[in-house]
Amino acid sequence: MTKYHGDIGMVSRPLYRADTSRQMAIELVLLFFLGGLGAHRFYMGRTTSGLILLSLTCFGVIFGAIVGGIKLALLVVGVILVWLVMDFFLILASHR
């Protein structure tokens, strides 16, 4: 199922839809090794949420540690970890 975006010419894949177990393996490897940077989201064509995750990781942790102290930085890390765990289960569920 491919969706076309009018005149832009971009093609995006639906969220958590992969055709093969190879794609699932790639998504999981990206999730485990580069998940905090949103690499698995970029691979799946979810650029907006990938950018949100990337900016949350980079700016949230650094800014949180500088301005709000270690407690705010740990809160941001906790939010990122919850997001990644949810992505893990959603990727697994999409390939059943």
Walk me through this protein's architecture.
This protein is mainly alpha-helical and 96 residues long. It has one domain. It has a two-stranded antiparallel sheet with strand order 1-2. Helix 1 packs antiparallel against helix 4 and helix 3 runs antiparallel to helix 4. The N terminus is likely disordered.
Please write out the topology.
Layout: E1 3-4, E2 11-12, H1 21-34, H2 39-43, H3 47-68, H4 70-94
Antiparallel strand pairs: 1-2
Helix pairs in contact: 1-4, 3-4
Q: In what range is the share of β-strand residues?
A: under 5%
The shape is: elongated
Rg to the nearest angstrom? 15 Å
User: Structural class given helices, strands, pairing?
Assistant: mainly alpha
- How many distinct domains? 1
Secondary-structure element string: EEHHHH
- Tell me about the largest β-sheet: 2 strands, antiparallel
End-to-end distance, in Å? 17 Å
On the 0-100 scale, what is the average pLDDT? 82
Side by side, the strands of the main sheet go 1-2
Total helix count?
A: 4
Total strands: 2
Stretches where pLDDT is under 50 for at least 5 consecutive residues are 1-9
Share of residues in helices: 55-70%
Transmembrane segments: 24-43, 50-67, 73-93
Subcellular location: Membrane
Domain TM2: 22-70
Keywords: Membrane, Transmembrane, Transmembrane helix
